[in-house]
Design a protein that fits this description.
This protein is α/β, with parallel strands linked by helices. It is built from 9 helices and 5 strands, in the order E-H-E-H-E-H-E-H-E-H-H-H-H-H. Helix 6 packs across helix 8. The longest helix has 33 residues.
C-alpha cells in the first residue's frame, strides 16, 4: 500500500497517556495515527482527504465527544467514529450509535476490541468514499448532457416510450431516438436498467 493510501486514525482524548497508548497500538499494526487533546485541535489542523476514522473520548474539555460528533455532522465531516470512555452508560452509548458511531468501548478495553472496531470503521470509510466517487462520476456524465437530453433522460427513466416522449416534448419520434442515443452514449450505459440506477444516484435531479 502506498504511503498516501495508508489510513489515518485520529485520536481525540484529553488524557495524554491514553492518547499515546492508542497511538502506539495503531502504529503497531501499520496504520498512521495523529492525536489531539480536544475536538478544537482536530478541527484546527484543517480538513483532510485521507481515508481514516476517529477514536473519540466521550468526556472532553470545552465540548463533549457526543456534542463534537453532532458538530462534525453539521459541518459535513463523515469520518467514522469509535467512542471510548471510562464513564459510559447505556443511554449514552445508544445516543452515540444512533448518531452513526461505529462502536462504543468502555475503558479499560482490550487492544483487540479497539483494533477490530478500527478495521470496521475503516471499511465503512472506504465504502462511503467509493460510493461518493461513483456519484461524482455520474454527476460529471450528467453535466455533459444538453438540456433536451436531460429532459429525454427524465422521461425515459419515468417509463415513457419514444412515441410518448415525442408527444410530451413536441418533437418527432426520430428526433427523440437521436437524443436518446446521444444521452445513453454520454451516460455510458447500454440498458434502461443501468440508466435508472444512475438516475437514482442523481436523486432524479429536477429539470432546469
Amino acid at each position: 500500500m502506498k504511503a498516501a493510501e495508508i489510513p489515518t486514525v485520529f485520536i481525540i482524548d484529553d488524557d495524554r497517556s491514553m492518547r499515546q497508548a492508542v497511538q502506539d497500538l495503531v502504529e503497531s499494526v501499520g496504520l498512521r495515527a495523529e492525536s489531539f487533546a480536544t475536538g478544537g485541535e482536530f478541527l484546527a489542523r484543517g480538513r483532510t482527504t485521507r481515508p481514516g476514522c476517529l477514536v473519540l473520548d466521550v468526556r472532553l474539555p470545552q465540548m463533549s465527544g457526543l456534542d463534537f460528533q453532532r458538530q462534525l455532522t453539521e459541518i459535513g465531516i463523515q469520518t467514522p467514529i469509535i467512542f471510548i470512555t471510562a464513564h459510559g452508560d447505556v443511554p449514552m452509548s445508544v445516543r452515540a450509535l444512533k448518531s452513526g458511531a461505529v462502536d462504543f468501548l468502555t475503558k479499560p478495553f482490550r487492544d483487540q476490541d479497539l483494533l477490530d472496531a478500527i478495521q470496521q470503521a475503516l471499511q465503512r470509510d472506504r465504502a462511503t468514499r467509493e460510493q461518493q466517487a461513483e456519484i461524482l462520476d455520474v454527476h460529471e456524465r450528467y453535466q455533459t448532457l444538453t438540456p433536451r437530453e436531460r429532459e429525454v433522460m427524465a422521461l425515459v427513466v419515468s417509463g415513457l416510450l419514444n412515441k410518448q416522449i415525442a408527444s410530451e416534448i413536441g418533437a418527432s419520434e426520430a428526433t427523440v431516438k437521436i437524443h436518446r442515443g446521444n444521452m445513453m452514449q454520454k451516460m455510458h450505459v447500454g440498458s434502461l436498467i443501468e440508466l435508472v440506477r444512475m438516475a437514482d444516484k442523481l436523486k432524479l435531479i429536477p429539470l432546469k
